Amino acid sequence: MLYNPSDMETTQNYTVLISFTAGLLSFFSPCILPLIPAYFSYITGISIGNIKEGQHYKKNILLSVVFVLGFTSVFTMLGASATWLGRQLLMKQDAVRIAGSIIIILFGLHITGILKIKPLYRQKKIQTGKIAGGYAGAFIIGMVFAFGWTPCVGPVLASILIIASTEESVGRGILLLLFYSLGIGMPFILTTIAINKMLKVFNRIKKHYRKIEISTGALLIVIGILLLLNKFQVFISF
Predict the structure, then answer these.
(1) Residue of 66, 64, 75 lying closest to 188 (CA atoms)
(2) Measured between alpha carbons, how far is 4 from 149 in angstroms, rounded to an integer?
(3) CA distance 93 to 227
(4) The pLDDT of residue 135 is above 50
(5) For the chain, what are the domain ranges?
(6) What is the C-alpha separation between 126 and 114, in angstroms, rounded?
(7) Which strand (E) or helix (H) includes residue 180?
């Protein structure tokens, strides 16, 4: 059977799509979405009521973009590290793949509620009170929150990092985590642009939290099983 370069391109595109979808599901998770108004107030330094009224509209958008860039920088660095480590463990690639797939399946079972992994419920408490405001402060806060979202994004993020560790280059690992970050960041920025409409949407989504959790967990379980069977790349190339 002849190698078709387009098959590799299709596979890579689907992997990126999975990363982006995982980011979206992380944003709408029950322990991030309800806190979005608080994040806005913290980053901008004004109340949610004033934000709704459109005070400092353009500045608020820029602050949100900088905040997103903050946690994106952390996630992409993690992606680069995961891929580099995967390259170093190339001789033990099968063992790494099997171990990683089992971890992803366990994370999926945890998110669906079938299995409870208590350490994943412990959220890191990071003090940010001394961080200065403005754009530099928003960027630093974004980096800080990237490490403090463990219960919400930890299992999903770790799963994407495991996938990144199987990629052929560090650039691909960075790309996967970049799109994961975009999945979280885009709705955050859109909320700043149209906060009144988006908050109404969030209120409607609240009743579907459990479905979102189950969907996220199911996605991880499927990915884990495919990796375990060494069928992940074959499956997404169709």
Answers:
(1) 64
(2) 40
(3) 12
(4) yes
(5) 57-236
(6) 30
(7) helix 170-193
